[in-house]
Amino acid sequence: MIITSFQTSESDKIFSQSSTITKNKKYYRVFQAISVISIILVFIYLINTQNPIQNDTILKEIEQSEKNNGHNDILTEQDMDQLGLEFLDKNETQQAIRIYDYLHQKYPDNLKYLNSLAYAYFVSGDNKNAFLNFQKSLQLDQDNEFALFYTGLYYIQQQDNQNAKIFFQKVLTLNSKHEGALLNLGNLIYAEKEEKYEEKSAFYYMKCIESNQKNKECLYKMGILYFNRDSSYQAIKFFKLILDVDPQNALANCALGDAYYKLKQNNEALIYYKNCVDLLKQDQQQKELIYYYKKILQIDQKIYPEIINILADLYYSQQQYDDALLFYKQVIRMNPKDEKALLAIIEIYDKQNNIKEQIFWLKNLVELKNLNNDNYILKLADINYKIKNCSEAIYWYKQLFNKQNQNYNLALQIAQCYVDIEDDHAAELWYQKVLIIDQQNQISLEKLSELYYNERKKQQAAKYSQLCLNNYIQSLICNKITGFLYYDDGHYQEASQNLLMALKQDPYDPQALFTIAQTYEALKDYKKASFFYKKCITVNPIASIYKNLAECLLQIDDIEEAIKMLQKSIELDPSYQDSYLLLAKIYENQNEEQSSIEIYEKYYQIDPYDASVVIKLAKYFQKENNIEKSMNYYKFLIEIRESYEPAYQAISSLYLQQNKLDQAIFYFHQLISNNQFNEFAVAQYKYLIALKK
């Protein structure tokens, strides 16, 4: 893998960085030598003096020197330079920058301090300031090899390869054996893929090797070039030269494995591949490990089980879960009792939220352990409960409860499963089992009181609520249930006390809010009732609650607000009839007949069979002399209430207004047919018959 991806491999980055900093830089070799000597001198100095110069002390002295216009009677220039080198050696770049910035300010023409400052910036990642200071250095000495080289590196970081090459060429004009410049020029040319790029890059790599036959980076690059040109034997020579220098070099071992594999010399390839993975494991290079373990697997099938396990774990560590699953399942096919692989498969399916597969593999694991691992059984039960497969969950919880029959949490969970599938009787039995184990178990007492209340078994509900409140006086559920029971029995004052206690625990419990509002309404305390209905609306804004609030507001003469609440109720639920009737009635009482009729007409669209509303509409339009509308309502009224005599009389009168005698006679006749003792109808009928003759 590393060989076939030469241009983008991590080795390129590692080798180029190490070479740029440590190899064949004339100035920097001197720099390193000074650093080593300085550290030794400082070490000796610290041992042989009673008051050694400490880092923080020196930094304070620098600050004091700055305040004294640079005058310093304690620290020497050499002391500060030594300290700066120590900071660089420890990669404490910000401290080094402070030292060399001070020295540069004091000795602006000193090339060494300026280079050190620029280098400190470069190592810290502050490329902009590094570049600016290297430029200053080149202004002092345009043949400054160190500054030229690092300026080239700066341009590589800026992806300006052309300028980078220019500066590396300048370095080579000063020092034709500069390994860093040779290596980077080779890399840049290879990356550009221009004509004859392989020959050109090889030229620089070979120059680098001539300069230093132990340069691992250049040896590796040459090996790669030969490998890619199918000259594996030549490649092997270069890779082996690396091992002569560094036998533990992972890249060289991997590359040799690839080269021998390409030559079909599998035994040799296997030796180097095994060396390769051993070294890669030390560096925790997981992706490369996967690749080379697969290569080993292609060569040596004898170690198949071991490699499959390793590959599965590697894929898992890389979060490549689909690949990990494939290999773990191969492990299971080879050894169905491999608990580690089963657990890994379950964890992967958990991460993928694949519940169905989780359950399947958990069952395998539970069967493998012959029900002897309670944690696996519990997990299997919990997963089934999570997906609302309550019957299966109950089965596994019971398996566990049979082994742990004093575990009331399991009994609670089984009871909850029965509640979820609406098997209240079974739920009650299991909550009772909990109380056998723990007589004061709050959850069971609350759940039993709730179950019995919902079943309208008030006596049992009251019993368990009271038992609960004896021990848990602030129980939300039991205070609610007790309040509901008092309300149902008409004990409103007692109900309010328990419901207020419940609301202390949860001020926005919708059931408690609604019931206490009803309670205060029953107590005719309409202000408190209004307060709780309003609070209830914030939690559960439904039409009926707005209507109830409006009724209470009317009782305290807040008519305007009541109208708003009814309008909001109708807006929320245009089919809620009670709000229409109450709103229309308010308008009637306010003598706003037109508004009242508009509401009744809307109501009629919802429920046309409410005779009382039809009568109102018919009478209104009769009074308004809207004969057509009035007559339509009266005729519809006869359809829904055939015996309603005023409707017949009204229709007859309306026809008489229109001089339609025949129609008027017909409806009087109908009226007499329904009630022959209606003297007015009989008289009118006879009169109209006579009039017609």
UniProtKB/TrEMBL annotation:
Coiled-coil annotated spans: none
Keywords: Membrane, TPR repeat, Transmembrane, Transmembrane helix
A Pfam match: TPR_16
SUPFAM superfamilies reported for this sequence: HCP-like (SSF81901), TPR-like (SSF48452)
SMART domains reported in the protein's UniProt record: TPR (SM00028)
Xref: InterPro entries: TPR-like_helical_dom_sf, TPR_rpt
Ranges annotated as spanning the membrane: 27-47
Per-repeat ranges for TPR: 111-144, 216-249, 305-338, 543-576, 577-610
PANTHER family (alphabetical): CELL DIVISION CYCLE 16,23,27 (PTHR12558), CELL DIVISION CYCLE PROTEIN 27 HOMOLOG (PTHR12558:SF13)
Assigned protein family: Belongs to the APC3/CDC27 family.
Name of this protein: Tetratricopeptide repeat protein
Organism: Tetrahymena thermophila (strain SB210)
